[in-house]
Structure formats: C-alpha cells, structure tokens
C-alpha cells in the first residue's frame, strides 16, 4: 500500500488509471451484450426455441384441424398469425380452446392442457407474428392496484356487458358476456388485450397496464367482500330479485292468506 | 241464525221462474256447527296453547336478535381490515333483518293461531242493509229541488252566469303554472339539438381525459369517449347534462367490413375508426354493448340492435332511427378530432325534434 501511495503522483499513474477505467467499462459492456445476445436466441417474448418446437408439435396434433397446418386459418377457425401469446393464454388457459363444438361462442370448461403445454402453444403462436404478450407479474399484483379507481374504469368500460358487479350478461343472438367472478388475474388481463370472441380489444394504449391492474384489483375486491347483506341472488339486480319476490314472495302471501281464512281442524 | 237477504222486495235481484218472486235456489242456511279439536279435547287445546306461546317466544328471540345485531356486532368502521368490516356488516344486516321479521311475524302468526284454535268460534251472520228504498230516493230528490228553489238560481241568471264564468276561469292559473315547467325560454329546447362537439374538438378518453391517437386503436378496439372541452364546464350539474348528450363510443373496424357510406358521409370515419352517440334513439339508454365481430351494438334496456358497419342502422328492436354518427378526422398532431357536431339531435324523439331549426344547422 505504501508503494502504491508513493507512486500515486507518478507521471504514468494517470495513464494507468485511464487504461484501467476503459478496460472495466469495455469488459462490462461486452458482458452485457453477450447476455443480450443469449436472450436474443430466444423469441422476442422470452420463449425458448425448444418451447416453440414443442408448441408446434402440440398445435399440429390438436389445433391444426380448424386453424390450419401453419395456423393460417380455415373455414372452421381464424388465422392465428399475430394474435399473440396472450390469446393462447386466455383461450387455452380457460379451456375455451380446443372448442368442444361450434356455437354462438366458445364455452369455458376445464383446461385440456397443463400450464407447461399452454406456454409451449403460446410460444409457437407468438413465433408466428407479433401480438399481445403475456403480462408481467407486476401488472397482475392486485395489492398494488387501486380498487376504487378500477371500479370507475370498470363501470365506464366493462359494466355495460359484464354487469356492474361483474356477474355477466346477455348479448345478441345467443352470445353473452361471462361472469368475471373467480377468473384468474392473468385471464382478465389477456382478455382485455386480445378481445376474445366478440369482446372489443382494450389494448395498452386504450387502458394502460396500471389501469388494467386497478380493474383487476376492483374485481378481486368485489369478489372477496361478497354481498353486504343477505343473498346476492347471482348479483343480477332487479332481474333475479324481482323473479324471487314475484314467485316465492307471492306464493308465501297467497299461502298465508289461505291459512288465515281456513277453519281450524 | 239470522235470515239471509232483506225484506225489501224491490231491492233484490230476482231470478227463478219469474212468477213466484223467490230465489232460484232456496236459502240453504249455514252448515251445522262443527266443534274444533281444541273444543272437545283438552290435550289438543293445551297443544294449541303451547304452539301460540312458541310463536310469541319466536317473536321475543327475533327482537333480541335485532338488539344483538344492532349493539353487539362491531360497526364496519371499527375494523382496520376492509374485508373483516364487510363480514361484520353482513352479519349485522342479517341479524337486524331476520330479527325484525321474526319479531313481527311471531306476534302476527301467534295471534291468528290463538284466535283460530282457542277463541270462541260461533258463527255470526250480519244481515245486509236494504240497498235503496223509494222513500230515500224521494228524500234525495226533495233536497235537490229544495236547493234549486232556495238558491233562486233559475230566477237570478246573473248569479248563475257569473258563477259559471268564475269556475271556468279559476283553473287557468294552474295552466299557466304548469306551463312554466316547460321553461321553453330558459331551458331552451334548442340546446337539445346541439352538443359540445364542434369542428376541431379533440376526442378524449372517459374518464381520464387523455387525447387519442388513431394508432391507439387496433382493429376490434372500442373506446369510451368524451369531448375535450367538457372539462372546461365549471358547474357539476351542467357538466353532467352536457356529458349526457356528448358521450361517444369510438371503435375501429377492419375498413373492408364497413359498407359503402351514403353520399355526404364518405369522410366521417378515419381508416376504419368510427364514432357514434351512445344515447339510444328509442328512450335514451346508453348503447355500449359492442360485439366486435358482428359489429352489433346492443341497447341493454329494450334490446335495440344497431349495426356499426352500416352507419349504425337499426337491425332489431324498438329504436326508430340509427344512432347519430360523429364525423371525425385526425389533426396535425395525429390526435382524433371531430369534424363537426352531430348532424342531428342525439337521443330519443321529443316533441320539437321535427321542427325546423331556426339556425338551419339540421335538416328538418
């Protein structure tokens, strides 16, 4: 140490320091670029080429009948070029795809592929063309969301179809907006970015990821808090409440009048 | 047992053979009195007594439930955790509601059961009073003629005529007062023809108020839109009134899906982006249920369906007119702006809608 401090003012000390600095920056930069190159060998969405290959195999075996051998689409199903990994995550992850039968819209059912397979399919579809990807966990963390703000956004953008309480509702010609109770955060998010079935697309330019997180936080809060008093009757408002009071309520009234006027045995 | 009917033969409806003047069916009288179980069996009476007491006790329990719910359950705002508070609220509501119901129902059912099983049950018949006698009619006629006589209304036509004139004029203030409800001058029916949209007004997102670039909408997107100048209105009430007329749904379709526009409307959209009023032309519900593949817009109130690909024409339901389309374009900075106001009044039909517009902005 003593020797170093003595040579501190040596004329070449400055040059040595400069060299050392340049070496360090250059080395770090080189290391960083190799990391980037390593990532670049994956697809832009961060899927590995193995996942894409495996996904293609699954696709050909399970989806190509309707969507075509190269996902180019056919009369029975749309092209999947550019629909993105988010579409696969939603459609396959909620069991809507593979479809059981043609109808007004695909029905939700227990998923036929496990998470790993769903990711592989998503990797393959994402490799076909750029589209909405699977959201970062940051945007699905409801603890960071603002449920009150999410409620306002929900009432403006979603409630007209999905009901103010997220219980779902009817659309035209047999189609319907499903209930949002019990739906995974990632599926709520990917539904917004991809617009499955007849749902409009709410991309990140329309509703930014923070706002989407607020909406999910609102839905999860609503789901957790339950009905503030009595039976929710499906959260359908005057429809189910009216049906109950006009059938059960009137029957009770009629019954009590019959009892009131009948003679005791 | 009293006799059915009454003695006045002029007042009863006669039927039967038309000559005897009697009833078609002989009065069968009341069925024989049948003693109840509790009348003859002391054990049954005791059982009824216990049942009635049980119903009263149910009522007492219900009242206690109310007080437990009201006082013993902690109020929602005493919890730090929102969800624990909601659970307490639910318990509280249930105890108060069910408790009050039982408290009322228990007393009511108990008294009815008491009366039916234990209180005396001898039959009583109350004879109906005669409907009208000739004497009553004559008396009424006498009163009316008396009034005419005593008021001298026939003899003094001046009194009669001024009274009729006064009675005819008296309701007129009411007509004037109720006409004020119309407030034609203050309220201004002309306001219903115009909205905040005007040439160059930017389309902004509801509720954030951020402007919209054409590229923000991918095909299939739908966006809920208000005019940018809406936030300049200070009064909350006026802002809501203007918002109610100006709310717009913006959507982007594949341009190939759009049908050929009618002449004069060729440049109302921008590259597949179209905008329409959200106020239903039937009775004014918000039409915002948009199906992106069928391009249906459904009104949730009466199921009127509009086709966005054909200038929002009505394809189903009670609506009488297409939804008004807002002509839009893009400004120098790439943001979506309105080309003009709506070219017709938005929303349902109203009395003055078809009248000629004094400013000539709208076709009659």
TrEMBL record, chain A:
<keyword id="KW-1133">Transmembrane helix</keyword>
<feature type="binding site" description="covalent">
    <location>
        <position position="66"/>
    </location>
    <ligand>
        <name>heme c 1</name>
    </ligand>
</feature>
<comment type="subunit">
    <text>The cytochrome bc1 complex is composed of a cytochrome b (QcrB), the Rieske iron-sulfur protein (QcrA) and a diheme cytochrome c (QcrC) subunit.</text>
</comment>
<keyword id="KW-0472">Membrane</keyword>
<dbReference type="GO" id="GO:0020037">
    <property type="term" value="F:heme binding"/>
</dbReference>
<keyword id="KW-0813">Transport</keyword>
<keyword id="KW-0677">Repeat</keyword>
<keyword id="KW-0249">Electron transport</keyword>
<keyword id="KW-0812">Transmembrane</keyword>
<feature type="binding site" description="covalent">
    <location>
        <position position="63"/>
    </location>
    <ligand>
        <name>heme c 1</name>
    </ligand>
</feature>
<keyword id="KW-0349">Heme</keyword>
<dbReference type="InterPro" id="IPR036909">
    <property type="entry name" value="Cyt_c-like_dom_sf"/>
</dbReference>
<keyword id="KW-1003">Cell membrane</keyword>
<dbReference type="Pfam" id="PF00034">
    <property type="entry name" value="Cytochrom_C"/>
</dbReference>
<keyword id="KW-0408">Iron</keyword>
<feature type="domain" description="Cytochrome c">
    <location>
        <begin position="145"/>
        <end position="223"/>
    </location>
</feature>
<feature type="domain" description="Cytochrome c">
    <location>
        <begin position="50"/>
        <end position="129"/>
    </location>
</feature>
<dbReference type="GO" id="GO:0005506">
    <property type="term" value="F:iron ion binding"/>
</dbReference>
<dbReference type="InterPro" id="IPR009152">
    <property type="entry name" value="bc1_cytC-su"/>
</dbReference>
<dbReference type="GO" id="GO:0008121">
    <property type="term" value="F:quinol-cytochrome-c reductase activity"/>
</dbReference>
<feature type="binding site" description="covalent">
    <location>
        <position position="161"/>
    </location>
    <ligand>
        <name>heme c 2</name>
    </ligand>
</feature>
<dbReference type="InterPro" id="IPR009056">
    <property type="entry name" value="Cyt_c-like_dom"/>
</dbReference>
TrEMBL record, chain B:
<keyword id="KW-1133">Transmembrane helix</keyword>
<dbReference type="InterPro" id="IPR014349">
    <property type="entry name" value="Rieske_Fe-S_prot"/>
</dbReference>
<keyword id="KW-0560">Oxidoreductase</keyword>
<keyword id="KW-0813">Transport</keyword>
<comment type="function">
    <text>Iron-sulfur subunit of the cytochrome bc1 complex, an essential component of the respiratory electron transport chain required for ATP synthesis. The bc1 complex catalyzes the oxidation of menaquinol and the reduction of cytochrome c in the respiratory chain. The bc1 complex operates through a Q-cycle mechanism that couples electron transfer to generation of the proton gradient that drives ATP synthesis.</text>
</comment>
<keyword id="KW-0249">Electron transport</keyword>
<dbReference type="InterPro" id="IPR036922">
    <property type="entry name" value="Rieske_2Fe-2S_sf"/>
</dbReference>
<dbReference type="Pfam" id="PF00355">
    <property type="entry name" value="Rieske"/>
</dbReference>
<keyword id="KW-0679">Respiratory chain</keyword>
<keyword id="KW-0411">Iron-sulfur</keyword>
<feature type="transmembrane region" description="Helical">
    <location>
        <begin position="52"/>
        <end position="74"/>
    </location>
</feature>
<comment type="similarity">
    <text>Belongs to the Rieske iron-sulfur protein family.</text>
</comment>
<keyword id="KW-1015">Disulfide bond</keyword>
<dbReference type="GO" id="GO:0016705">
    <property type="term" value="F:oxidoreductase activity, acting on paired donors, with incorporation or reduction of molecular oxygen"/>
</dbReference>
<dbReference type="GO" id="GO:0005886">
    <property type="term" value="C:plasma membrane"/>
</dbReference>
<dbReference type="InterPro" id="IPR045603">
    <property type="entry name" value="QcrA_N"/>
</dbReference>
<dbReference type="GO" id="GO:0046872">
    <property type="term" value="F:metal ion binding"/>
</dbReference>
<dbReference type="InterPro" id="IPR017941">
    <property type="entry name" value="Rieske_2Fe-2S"/>
</dbReference>
<keyword id="KW-0479">Metal-binding</keyword>
<keyword id="KW-0472">Membrane</keyword>
<dbReference type="GO" id="GO:0004497">
    <property type="term" value="F:monooxygenase activity"/>
</dbReference>
<dbReference type="GO" id="GO:0051537">
    <property type="term" value="F:2 iron, 2 sulfur cluster binding"/>
</dbReference>
């Amino acid at each position: 140490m003593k020797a170093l401090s003595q040579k501190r003012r040596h004329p070449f000390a400055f040059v040595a320091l400069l060299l050392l600095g340049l070496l360090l920056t250059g080395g770090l930069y080189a290391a960083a670029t190799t990391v980037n190159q390593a990532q670049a060998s994956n697809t832009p969405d961060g899927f590995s080429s193995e996942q894409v290959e495996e996904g293609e195999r699954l696709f050909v075996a399970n989806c190509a009948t309707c969507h075509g051998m190269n996902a180019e689409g056919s009369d029975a199903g749309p092209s999947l070029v550019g629909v993105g990994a988010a579409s696969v995550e939603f459609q396959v992850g909620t069991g809507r795809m593979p479809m059981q039968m043609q109808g007004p819209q695909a029905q939700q059912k227990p998923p036929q592929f496990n998470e790993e397979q769903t990711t592989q399919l998503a990797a393959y579809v994402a490799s076909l063309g750029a589209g909405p990807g699977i959201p970062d966990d940051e945007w699905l963390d409801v603890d960071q969301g603002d449920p009150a703000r999410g409620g306002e956004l929900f009432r403006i953008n979603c409630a007209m179809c999905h009901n103010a309480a997220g219980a779902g509702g009817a659309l035209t010609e047999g189609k319907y907006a499903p209930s949002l109770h019990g739906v995974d955060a990632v599926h709520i998010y990917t539904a917004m970015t991809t617009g499955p079935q007849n749902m409009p697309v709410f991309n990140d330019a329309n509703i930014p990821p923070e706002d989407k997180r607020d909406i999910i936080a609102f839905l999860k809060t609503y789901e957790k808090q339950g009905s503030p008093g009595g039976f929710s009757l499906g959260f359908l408002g005057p429809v189910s409440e009216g049906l109950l009071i006009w059938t059960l309520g009137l029957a009770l009234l009629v019954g009590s009048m019959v009892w009131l006027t009948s003679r005791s045995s | 047992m009293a006799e059915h009917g009454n003695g006045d033969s002029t007042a009863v409806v006669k039927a039967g053979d038309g000559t005897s003047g009697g009833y078609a069916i002989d009065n069968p009288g009341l069925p024989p009195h049948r003693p109840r179980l509790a009348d003859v069996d002391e054990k049954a009476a005791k059982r009824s007594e216990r049942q009635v007491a049980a119903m009263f006790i149910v009522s007492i329990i219900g009242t206690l439930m109310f007080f437990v719910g009201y006082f013993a359950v902690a109020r929602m705002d005493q919890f730090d955790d929102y969800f624990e508070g909601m659970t307490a609220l639910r318990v509280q509501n249930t105890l108060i509601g069910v408790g009050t119901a039982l408290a009322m129902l228990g007393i009511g059912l108990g008294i009815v059961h008491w009366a039916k099983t234990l209180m005396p049950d001898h039959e009583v018949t109350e004879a109906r009073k005669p409907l009208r006698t000739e004497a009553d009619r004559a008396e009424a006629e006498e009163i009316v003629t008396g009034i005419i006589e005593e008021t001298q209304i026939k003899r003094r036509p001046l009194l009669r005529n001024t009274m009729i004139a006064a009675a005819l004029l008296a309701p007129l203030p009411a007509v004037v007062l109720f006409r004020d409800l119309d407030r034609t001058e203050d309220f201004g029916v002309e306001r219903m023809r115009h909205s905040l949209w005007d040439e160059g007004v930017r389309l902004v997102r509801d509720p954030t108020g951020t402007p919209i670039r054409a590229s923000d909408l991918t095909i299939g997107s739908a966006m809920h839109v208000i005019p940018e100048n809406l936030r300049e209105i200070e009064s909350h009430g006026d802002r809501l009134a203007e918002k109610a007329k100006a709310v717009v749904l913006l959507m982007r379709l594949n341009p190939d899906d759009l049908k050929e526009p009618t002449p004069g409307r060729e440049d109302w959209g921008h590259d597949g982006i179209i905008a329409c009023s959200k106020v239903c032309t039937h009775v004014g519900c918000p039409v915002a249920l948009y199906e992106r593949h069928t391009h249906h817009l459904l009104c949730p109130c009466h199921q009127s369906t509009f086709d966005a690909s054909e200038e929002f024409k009505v394809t189903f339901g009670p609506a009488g007119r297409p939804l008004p389309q807002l002509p839009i374009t893009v400004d120098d900075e790439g943001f979506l702006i309105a080309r003009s106001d709506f070219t017709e009044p938005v929303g349902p039909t109203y009395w003055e809608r078809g009248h000629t517009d004094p400013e000539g902005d709208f076709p009659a």
